[in-house]
């Protein structure tokens, strides 16, 4: 069974002549251990797709199911819990708090989610895999863009979510870094059995994806 | 608490400035309160040491002991009981007979040595009680002005010399040191005829019935409130302290509002990650409490330093139970100030996290 499934998703903004259909009957599903790539130019509805998949906003019609639970039937508090426990976000802006050291970014997760996080040994292995084990005392503004992105990936994986949703994770990275991050995401999907969904306009990530979708004018087409 | 402390630790200058602001406000409040209590004490200390419960004055005295004159006719048919004392009050200028000290304005209190106040209610800091008509007991603050035991002094421009035989504790009235002497001396100072017996009657018992029907009767609180300038002075200080409290509330609310606005993108990311709004609200409230507590501690330290450095003549009294109450009120105000940004946190749209 797919860990996340979006069925017949429509999303419109505005009314009357100003009405814009951002997503048009979108269907999508992802399984554990797979990296799905959703490509599309700016304004194609990628971010809207990601916010609906992550339960941050509701679709105009259609359903989103995460591990068999329909998000539309959950309360706002339950959706918070679901995001905390089942979904990890990797954002373009790295999702790191500027006033917390790398180590404290994970302490914050432990403060809020007291159980079910990666065990210490596995967490240390993850930091080593990502090449950030020596950076735990540093603050985000002391790290390069690539280092921040790797910390953000670790931060997303630390609560041990089933799904990782990544929004333009390679924006502002050079080609070498794109390859590193792409390989890492692929490795996370395979080694940690996560369903990783990446929305991007960066074609350089295609080679790492198990499934590739094109999102154009609100319509989604699977191409791989 | 974790996020609140980490952020304050990381943004030392920003939060340091806010704390400095609260230090100054709380310092000002504590000093004003200390002065309010100090001045109030200097107005009424003697009345308190007399253990005053009931006061009788002339009905036409406009509630003022120094303007009141009680005649023997008004007391006809009454005997004073063991709780009651005749008191004569007159403002005087005290000078050393040899002229070797500055003139001091004081309040002369004439007493009958056989009555309650003279016998029981003048606590001494040094020396002894007066046994003769030419002996005086004066407020101990006069020591700082150069007056010593056995000094010969004069009152106003009378030719008689008096000798200081004791220094009294808490002998202040109308923000002036008290000079205790005999009722006969008071009559001389006031230049009143033999029919006048005193300015008023002080009883250290709460007298329910109206014992002296030709006199006006006051409870201790009523009498103190009517001391010249006492209520106006206290109200002025109370208003200043109240305004400072409101200002501190506004400052903490505005600063936390601005800081929260700056952190909205971070909070949106945390909300997107499923961090509950209540955690972020608790962080904001903890931050308000930490800022207020740190600022108040700084204010208290400065206040203690001020009382230590301040000359004895400045009326500054720290009333710790009242300060503790004020600390609690200030922290509550800080928490109230945090409610403005709390509304913003509740309205955070986590979608903003993806829209940058």
TrEMBL record, chain A:
Membrane topology: Peripheral membrane protein
Keywords from the UniProt entry: ATP-binding, Cell membrane, Membrane, Nucleotide-binding, Transport
SUPFAM superfamilies: P-loop containing nucleoside triphosphate hydrolases
All residue ranges annotated as the ABC transporter domain in the record: 4-224
UniProt KW Ion transport keyword: no
Primary residence: membrane
Keyword Transmembrane belongs to the record: no
Described purpose of this protein according to its UniProt entry: Part of the ABC transporter complex hrt involved in hemin import. Responsible for energy coupling to the transport system.
Known partners and oligomeric status: The complex is composed of two ATP-binding proteins (HrtA), two transmembrane proteins (HrtB) and a solute-binding protein.
Protein name per the record: Putative hemin import ATP-binding protein HrtA
Organism: Limosilactobacillus antri DSM 16041
Organismal lineage: Bacteria, Bacillati, Bacillota, Bacilli, Lactobacillales
From TrEMBL, chain B:
Compartments it resides in: Cell membrane
Keyword Cell division: no
Protein name: Putative hemin transport system permease protein HrtB
Record-linked InterPro entries: ABC-4/HrtB_transporter, ABC3_permease_C
Keywords, sorted A to Z: Cell membrane, Membrane, Transmembrane, Transmembrane helix, Transport
Family note: Belongs to the ABC-4 integral membrane protein family. HrtB subfamily.
Domain annotation ABC3 transporter permease C-terminal: ranges: 239-350
Highest rank taxon of the organism: Bacteria
Membrane topology qualifier: Multi-pass membrane protein
Role summary: Part of the ABC transporter complex hrt involved in hemin import. Responsible for the translocation of the substrate across the membrane.
Any one GO cellular component localisation term in the record: plasma membrane
Quaternary structure (record): The complex is composed of two ATP-binding proteins (HrtA), two transmembrane proteins (HrtB) and a solute-binding protein.
Transmembrane segments: 15-39, 237-259, 279-302, 322-342
One Pfam family named in its UniProt record: FtsX
């Amino acid at each position: 069974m797919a860990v996340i499934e979006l069925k017949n998703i429509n999303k419109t903004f505005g009314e009357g002549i100003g009405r814009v259909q951002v997503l048009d009957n979108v269907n999508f599903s992802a399984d554990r251990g797979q990296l799905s790539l959703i490509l599309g130019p700016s304004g194609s509805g990628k971010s809207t797709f990601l916010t609906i998949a992550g339960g941050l906003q509701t679709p105009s019609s259609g359903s989103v199911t995460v591990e068999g639970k329909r998000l539309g039937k959950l309360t706002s508090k339950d959706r918070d819990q679901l995001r905390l426990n089942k979904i990890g976000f990797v954002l373009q802006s790295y999702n790191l708090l500027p006033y917390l050291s790398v180590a404290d970014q994970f302490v914050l997760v432990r403060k809020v989610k007291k159980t079910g996080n990666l065990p210490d040994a596995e967490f240390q292995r993850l930091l080593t895999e990502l090449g950030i084990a020596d950076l735990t005392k540093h603050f985000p503004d002391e790290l390069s863009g690539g280092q921040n992105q790797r910390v953000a990936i670790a931060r997303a994986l630390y609560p041990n979510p089933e799904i990782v949703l990544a929004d333009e994770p390679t924006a502002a990275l050079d080609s070498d870094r794109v390859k590193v991050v792409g390989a890492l995401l692929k490795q996370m999907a395979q080694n940690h059995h996560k369903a990783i969904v990446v929305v991007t306009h960066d074609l350089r990530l295609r080679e790492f994806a198990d499934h590739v979708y094109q999102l154009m004018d609100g319509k989604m087409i699977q191409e791989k | 608490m974790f996020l609140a402390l980490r952020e304050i630790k990381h943004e030392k200058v920003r939060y340091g400035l806010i704390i400095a602001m609260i230090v100054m406000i709380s310092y000002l409040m504590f000093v004003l309160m200390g002065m309010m209590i100090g001045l109030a004490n200097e107005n009424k200390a003697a009345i308190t040491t007399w253990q005053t419960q009931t006061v009788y004055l002339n009905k036409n005295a406009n509630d003022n002991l120094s303007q009141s004159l009680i005649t023997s006719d008004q007391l006809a048919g009454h005997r004073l009981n063991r709780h009651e004392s005749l008191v004569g009050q007159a403002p005087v200028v005290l000078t050393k007979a040899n002229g070797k000290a500055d003139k001091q304005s004081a309040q002369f209190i004439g007493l009958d040595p056989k009555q309650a106040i003279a016998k029981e209610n003048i606590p001494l800091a040094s020396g002894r009680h007066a046994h003769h008509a030419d002996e005086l007991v004066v407020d101990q603050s006069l020591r700082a002005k150069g007056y010593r035991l056995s000094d010969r002094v004069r009152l106003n421009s009378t030719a008689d010399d008096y000798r200081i035989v004791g220094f009294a504790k808490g002998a202040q009235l109308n923000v002036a040191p008290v000079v205790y002497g005999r009722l006969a001396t008071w009559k001389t100072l006031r230049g009143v005829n033999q029919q006048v017996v005193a300015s008023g009657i002080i009883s250290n018992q709460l007298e329910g019935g109206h014992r002296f029907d030709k006199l006006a009767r006051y409870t201790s609180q009523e009498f103190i409130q009517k001391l010249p300038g006492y209520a106006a002075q206290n109200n002025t200080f109370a208003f200043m302290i109240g305004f400072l409290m409101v200002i501190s509330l506004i400052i903490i609310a505005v600063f936390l509002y601005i800081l929260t606005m700056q952190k909205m993108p971070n909070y949106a990311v945390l909300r997107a990650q499923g961090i509950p709004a209540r955690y972020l609200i608790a962080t904001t409230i903890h931050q308000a409490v930490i800022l207020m507590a740190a600022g108040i501690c700084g204010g208290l330290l400065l206040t203690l330093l001020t009382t230590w450095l301040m000359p004895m003549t400045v009326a500054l009294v720290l009333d710790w139970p009242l300060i503790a109450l004020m600390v609690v009120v200030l922290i509550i105000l800080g928490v109230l100030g945090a409610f403005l940004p709390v509304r913003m946190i509740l309205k955070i749209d986590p979608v903003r996290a993806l829209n940058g």
